[in-house]
UniProtKB/TrEMBL annotation, chains A, B:
Pfam families: Glyoxalase_4
Protein's name according to its UniProt entry: Methylmalonyl-CoA epimerase
InterPro entries documented for this protein: Glyas_Bleomycin-R_OHBP_Dase, MeMalonyl-CoA_epimerase, MMCE/EMCE_epimerase, VOC_core
PANTHER family xrefs: METHYLMALONYL-COA EPIMERASE (PTHR43048), METHYLMALONYL-COA EPIMERASE, MITOCHONDRIAL (PTHR43048:SF3)
Annotated keywords: Isomerase, Metal-binding
Length: 146, 146
């Protein structure tokens, strides 16, 4: 069962400049940064609020680290903006299987590694009214900035 | 101070079909529906979780009700997908003024009426790394479906 908006993924050309925009404009601070080599991105997680299921909602700022990453191709086509949305669940495997059974294309055969040790998969945007949709099961997390 | 992800605004061609997709695929139920004549949209709010500031996070599904609405023009250019993101605050007037002072274009001189009696304004996406960004102060709300 999907129990929260886990994050909004935002693609940008310059992660440091975008982090600085969110910090100076809204006061949002970086909770965690990492490079996901498989996804081809450098990312910053900004924690916005905690959620009633015991999790939290983040902005995930994404900068491509190689030209052939999906985010680099997306940026070249669309420019900066919202790249995907993600719902949190305690059971990404079960939910992905149930959603696949309803005829929605799930992009990974098995969930892969996401931010902060989470396990993630994506649903095809053409099956989701144009929205690239991620499902996330979080690992226990602690900010690397605190 | 912005204290939550209030909602993700998603533009669609057919509100009823999109509501049905979110219900059958994820189990998300409609919390509230309304027509906003000023914005030129018919909308459905799907409540996803409650938030640590005493508010909630929603998906806001938006269907244009006239050809000259900004959402109709956006759909004609972009197709269905994420139209904007919204942050919740207790003081949309004060936050909008502070953000305007930082050089970000605020689209309304004064906040206008948003979903469920809220007061809202928007920030220019070109000043926000491509993200059309809304600020929301909620009114006390009760679902019209409960």
């Amino acid at each position: 069962m999907l129990t929260r908006i886990d994050h909004i993924g935002i693609a940008c050309h310059d992660l440091d400049a975008t982090v600085e925009f969110y910090r100076t404009t809204y006061g949002f601070e970086v909770f965690h940064t990492e490079v996901n080599e498989e996804q081809g991105v450098r990312e910053a997680m900004l924690k916005i609020n905690e959620t009633s299921d015991g999790g939290a909602s983040y902005l995930q700022l994404l900068e491509p680290v190689r030209e052939d990453s999906t985010v680099a191709k997306w940026l070249a086509k669309n420019g900066e903006g919202v790249h995907h949305i993600a719902f949190g669940t305690a059971d990404v495997d079960g939910d992905a299987a149930a959603i696949r059974d309803k005829g929605v294309r799930v992009l990974y055969e098995e969930p892969r590694r996401g931010s902060m040790g989470s396990r993630i998969t994506f649903l095809h945007p053409k099956d989701c009214h144009g929205v690239l949709t991620e499902l996330v099961t979080s690992a226990p997390v602690e900010s690397d900035e605190h």
